[in-house]
Structure formats: C-alpha cells, structure tokens
Structure to design on (445 residues):
C-alpha cells in the first residue's frame, strides 16, 4: 500500500511546502495554502476497510482513537507520531435529533451537530488539536518556536490556550476589548496565556497578530493557517458515520472568518475521494446581518470580497468584516450548490431560544444558522422531506449573558418572543397553585 502523505499547497497554484515549514501563504503569489493529501494513497484502501477501521477505533480506549479527529488520522496528519499528538478527546460530538423542532418547522428530519460539546465549549477545539500537535512535533524535532499566537473573538483563544497548556507551549492571544463574553475572556487567562485586550475589533487584532508572527519564532494559529482546517473538516465524515454513512441533503453552518465552511467542504471532498460517500450535500452559510461581507459578495455573484466594518452583533464570534478564508469559502459554496443567507439580530435571538424549548441550549451563532433554516422553510427553499443538519459551533453556557438578557427582556432592540419568565410568589400553596394551573394550561395548548 502506498504510504499516506500530506503537504501544503497553494489553493491557486501547484507550489508545495512541507508541513513542518513555518508558512501561511504561497511564496509565489501570496495565495492561501491548504493541506493537500495524497488521495491516491487514501483510495488504495477500500471504503469497506476504512469504515471497519473507523468503527473499531470508535470502540477503542487508545488515546488517539478516543479523539474524533485522530481516529481519522490518515485523513488529517498521516505522518505525525502518535506520541506527539496533543488531544483533549475532542470530536465525536453528538448529533442531536431535533425532531421536536423539525415538527414545528414542518420538516421530517432535522439534526443539530453539537460541536460546542467539547473541552473548551466550541468547535475550535477540532482544529486546534491538529495545529498544536504539529507545533509540538516541530518543536520536538528542533524547530525554534517560542510561542503560538492568535487573534480571537473568544473561542479560538480558549482552544489555543487549553491545548498549548496541555503541551507546555506558551500561548499569546489578542482579543478585542469589551467584545467577548466573560466566559470566553476568562478561559485563556485561566490557562496561562499572555492575554492582550486591544482597543479595536477582531479585524484589527488580526492585523496585529500577523505582524507579531512575521517573526517565525511565534507561530500563527488563526484559520489562515490551514492546519486548523484539517481538524474541522472531520465534522463531515463524522456526520456521515453517525448517519450510517448516509449523506444529509443540506447542511447549514454559521460563518464569520469562513474557515469552517471551507473545512466542511474539504471533509466531504475527502470522503468522496475515498469512496466513503457517493454524493454531495448542499452547504448553506448563515451570517449575522451586522457582519455579512460574505453574504454581500454572494448577492453580487461573488465578484469580489469587499471588507466591511462589522457592527456589534449578539453573535460576537462571527463579528468579522474581513474574513481571511473568503477564497476557500467561495469555492466551497460554488462546489456544493450552496447559498449564503443573512440573519437579523431578532431572528437569531428568537431562533436560538425557540430551539432551546426543544431541549437544546443554543449559542447565538447557532441561532444564526437556525434563523437561516427558519427563513428557508418559510420560503419553501428547504423542502419538508429534506434531511438537514445544522452545525452548532459553541455551547450556550459560554453566552450566559445573552441567555439571561433574552429571558429578562433586556436585550437592546430585541422583543423576546420565546422568553420564559421566573414567577415570584409567597411560600403559600394557594398562590403557588394559581400560577401552576395557569401556566400548565398555557403550555398544553
């Protein structure tokens, strides 16, 4: 069998670079890079053999196998020694059967992929295990890397700090001051990162981190580093595996810096090349109306990306006006018969809390994706018999302020249609029963 191999390659050219080189863009034309696998080698193992291997690893207690990412390591970093892998048992995220919400929306099959059910509470763990593992491997081989750095709206910094702390590698994070939740801010602080809150937005932080990492002794961990994509792309085969190697009709994913949608498409590309699946899903990206440059480009026929000054949005992790992964995301939408939608603050807040009534606990970014689903169903652009998967990118517990304010009806400019108030009463059975009888009658309707 041909040995498995991967390298960096220009997304718009043929120039390649080894994975242990500190490089983020092509030296030929400045384009983004991607990790290119030898798909001929991957296809030399039959689909039945791959499925059997992945099923066996699902039952294994070997450290690498207990990770949803590293249980598919041949598709990720095939040449890294297992002892260099830095894992927090990320992946294998639940595929929530949202049948109650589906019924409300007039659908037959709806699932929510809970990527926020992870160590730091977001899907960023899926990519960060790959990046930090590769850095760990490079340092062990003698690479002069002193620290790993990222710009973040919260979740990337949490993932970077946790994995670097596990590996014993210093981390540096740049956050926009006052634009992250308390839960997001405290995570990198707790894990010992060097934390800098800058008086700017995410795009301003991104400019600074690129300048800082121009010195190759500080390694860049943002999604323009395509190593992250290799972990995030395993969402695709994992969904198919959880559905018995069946491909859903449509997948809806929230988009900010757009590394996630490009990763999703790349995962399905790999599955097709390996014979694990035989069709493509439709991929839909949902953006917050206050930070929607990708949607605007889509509306113009993808003529070009015109960066915007992102306005404040409840979906703070995708409050990004100049997405780095735009070229990859454009390609993903075109190759996967995709669409891009824009969702208002009212729509995302209501969609998140409506879904909570059916057993979920949604972050605002998941609300963006669910808001897009609600729109598409109302316009019959998603048929009742379509099988749909919504990607939930973070755990609702990281956004407690958002949840509390919605139920207290104190979110600025938001009318909380699905608020669930707390009823105050004296410790007397009469008033208590009056409230219970009224509310139980209301909820039986």
């Amino acid at each position: 069998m041909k040995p498995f191999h991967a390298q960096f390659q220009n997304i718009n050219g043929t120039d390649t670079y080894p994975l242990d080189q500190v490089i983020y863009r092509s030296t030929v034309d400045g384009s983004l890079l991607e990790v290119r696998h030898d798909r001929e080698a991957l296809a030399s193992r039959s689909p039945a053999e791959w499925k059997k291997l992945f099923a066996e690893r699902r039952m294994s207690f070997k450290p690498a196998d207990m990770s949803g990412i590293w249980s598919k390591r041949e598709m990720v970093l095939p040449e890294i020694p297992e002892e260099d892998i830095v894992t927090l048992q990320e992946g294998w995220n639940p595929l929530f059967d949202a049948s109650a919400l589906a019924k409300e929306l007039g659908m037959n099959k709806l699932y929510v992929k809970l990527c926020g059910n992870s160590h730091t509470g977001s899907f960023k763990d899926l990519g960060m295990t790959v990046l930090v593992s590769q850095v760990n491997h490079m340092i062990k081989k003698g690479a002069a890397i002193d620290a790993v750095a990222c710009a973040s709206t919260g979740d990337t910094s949490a993932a970077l700090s946790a994995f670097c702390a596990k590996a014993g590698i210093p981390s540096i994070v740049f956050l926009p001051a006052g634009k992250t939740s308390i839960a997001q801010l405290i995570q990198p602080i707790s894990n010992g990162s060097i934390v800098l809150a800058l008086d700017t937005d995410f795009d301003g932080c991104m400019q600074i981190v690129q300048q800082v990492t121009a010195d190759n002794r500080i390694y860049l961990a943002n999604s323009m580093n395509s190593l992250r994509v290799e972990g995030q792309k395993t969402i695709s085969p994992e969904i198919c595996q959880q559905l018995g190697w069946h491909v859903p009709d449509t997948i809806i994913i929230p988009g900010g810096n757009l590394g996630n949608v490009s990763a999703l498409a790349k995962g399905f590309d790999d599955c097709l090349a390996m014979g694990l699946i035989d069709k493509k899903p439709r991929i839909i990206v949902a953006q917050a109306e206050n930070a929607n440059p990708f949607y605007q480009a889509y509306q113009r026929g993808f003529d070009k990306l015109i960066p915007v000054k992102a306005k404040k949005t409840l979906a703070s992790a995708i409050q990004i006006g100049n997405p780095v992964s735009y070229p990859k995301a454009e390609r993903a939408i075109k190759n996967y018969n995709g669409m891009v939608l824009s969702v208002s603050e009212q729509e995302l807040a209501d969609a998140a809390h409506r879904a909570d009534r059916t057993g979920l606990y949604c972050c605002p970014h998941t609300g963006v994706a669910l808001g897009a689903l609600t729109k598409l169903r109302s316009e019959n652009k998603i048929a009742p018999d379509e099988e749909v998967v919504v990607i939930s990118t973070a755990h609702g517990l990281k956004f407690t302020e958002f949840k509390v304010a919605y139920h207290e009806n104190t979110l600025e400019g938001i009318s909380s249609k699905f608020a669930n108030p707390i009823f105050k009463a004296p410790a007397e059975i009469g008033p208590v029963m009056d409230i219970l009888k009224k509310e139980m009658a209301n909820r039986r309707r």
